[in-house]
């Protein structure tokens, strides 16, 4: 997972602003020592992490030194111990730490703990004594995810200057086959948004990649959905649609520029879950800017399909010339396909109208034989299949009526019979009947 840092200037950081760091301090996976901390153990530990004195964060496990920060929030998310810490601005290495975070030299977490219970290589109960910022984690999932700034509002409370990437409060599977459609609130629940509990709102928010706050005040505040509303499964086509919208496809998405990287990181992690490598953020961002703020959707998908080389598209003038050529070629191809589609639609409509007219005439003829009242206006509203069914029904009735028998009456004493779709029929009666109903 790639580190995200809002471009702050440490020297301009005022007293009413703080720097916060978010990420995963541990996870229920095998670490470098071969141990696995169970999810249940992490959940129990998370409840104690914000309590004194075990809420302190240090550098490289030097817990006899001044803490570089303190944990303000902690919870288990999808098997990982998520934490949010506030950096200590009074620490003599504050500026060094901040720059190290920004330059990705310091981009991981490590925990110091005491084992209380274990079963084989599984740690089922532990006491976390401290968390440290480190360069190399013992747990491969213990990665710093986001660094950002908060400021105090007029009332002294904390006011967030950025949105959030909602976490997944549930376990989820993967779906790489289903089509994708943007969900509505009714796809999640029969309740109105105001009727939902905070927990229910957070659960719904977990299906999206961005919100101004969590839980949001309105369902419509949620952006970039990519999880199935019923099963929670992450849907591949939903992930691609969200990534495309992030870089301008279909009108783009209205989120703060500082939130674009965290959202990208979230979606990129899903790419890797499907075994796919996402295009690099800085390259997509550069191409988006060169394209006037939005990568054309078909260009974006051509890049994802590997049909266009992203590097060549952003390489100075040559790349832009290639992009312009490709855009023109694809636009011409799209226009040609649209025109062919319109022509086919027109031919199909013409054919259907002709077939309908013929069927209506046949129905009118056979209705005279069966003495069935027919509303021609209603017939014109029916489609071809409905007309064929009606015609077949009337033709069947016509064969059993006395009127047909009278019209096809012959003077021959010994009629000649043949097999027909209507059973054994006198050949002369059969020919006459076909003529009457318009088949000959």
TrEMBL record:
Coiled coil is among the record's keywords: yes
Domain of life: Archaea
Entry keywords, A to Z: Coiled coil, Hydrolase, Protease, Viral release from host cell
GO BP of this protein: proteolysis
Keyword Nucleotidyltransferase annotated: no
Pfam families cross-referenced by the UniProt entry: Peptidase_S78
Molecular function in Gene Ontology: peptidase activity
Name listed for the protein in its UniProt record: Phage prohead protease, HK97 family
InterPro entries: Peptidase_S78_dom
Source organism of the structure: Archaeoglobus profundus (strain DSM 5631 / JCM 9629 / NBRC 100127 / Av18)
Residue stretches in coiled coil: 313-361
Domain Prohead serine protease: 11-150
């Amino acid at each position: 997972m790639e580190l995200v840092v809002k471009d702050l200037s440490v020297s301009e950081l005022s007293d009413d602003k703080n720097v916060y760091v978010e990420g995963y301090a541990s996870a229920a996976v095998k670490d470098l020592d071969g141990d696995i901390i169970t999810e249940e153990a992490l959940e129990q530990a998370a409840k104690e992490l914000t309590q004194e004195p075990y809420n302190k964060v240090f550098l490289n496990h030097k817990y006899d030194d001044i803490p570089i920060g303190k944990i303000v929030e902690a919870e288990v998310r999808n098997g990982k111990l998520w934490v949010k810490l506030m950096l200590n601005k009074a620490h003599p290495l504050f500026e060094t730490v901040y720059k190290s975070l920004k330059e990705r030299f310091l981009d991981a977490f490590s925990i110091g703990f005491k084992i209380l219970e274990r079963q084989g290589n599984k740690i089922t109960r532990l006491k976390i004594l401290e968390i440290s910022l480190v360069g190399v984690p013992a747990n491969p999932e213990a990665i710093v995810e986001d660094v950002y700034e908060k400021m105090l509002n007029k009332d002294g409370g904390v006011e967030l200057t950025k949105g959030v990437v909602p976490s997944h409060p549930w376990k989820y599977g993967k779906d790489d086959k289903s089509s994708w459609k943007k969900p509505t609130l009714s796809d999640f629940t029969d309740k109105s948004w105001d009727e939902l509990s905070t927990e229910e709102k957070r659960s719904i928010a977990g299906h999206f990649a961005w919100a101004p706050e969590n839980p949001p005040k309105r369902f419509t505040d949620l952006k970039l959905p990519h999880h199935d509303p019923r099963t929670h499964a992450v849907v591949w086509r939903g992930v691609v649609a969200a990534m495309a919208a992030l870089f301008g496809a279909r009108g783009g998405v209205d989120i703060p520029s500082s939130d674009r990287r965290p959202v990208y990181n979230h979606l990129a992690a899903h790419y890797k879950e499907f075994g796919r490598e996402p295009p690099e953020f800085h390259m997509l961002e550069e191409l988006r800017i060169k394209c006037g703020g939005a990568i054309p959707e078909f260009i974006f998908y051509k890049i994802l399909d590997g049909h266009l080389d992203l590097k060549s598209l952003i390489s100075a003038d040559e790349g832009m010339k290639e992009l312009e050529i490709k855009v023109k070629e694809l636009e011409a191809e799209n226009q040609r396909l649209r025109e062919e589609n319109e022509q086919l639609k027109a031919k199909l409509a013409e054919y259907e109208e002709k077939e309908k007219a013929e069927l209506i005439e046949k129905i009118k003829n056979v209705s005279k034989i069966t003495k069935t009242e027919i509303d021609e206006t209603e017939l014109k509203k029916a489609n071809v299949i409905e007309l064929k069914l009606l015609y077949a029904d009337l033709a069947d009735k016509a064969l059993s009526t006395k009127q047909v028998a009278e019209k096809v009456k012959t003077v021959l004493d010994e009629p000649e019979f043949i097999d027909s779709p209507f059973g054994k029929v006198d050949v002369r009666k059969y020919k006459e009947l076909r003529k009457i109903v318009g088949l000959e």
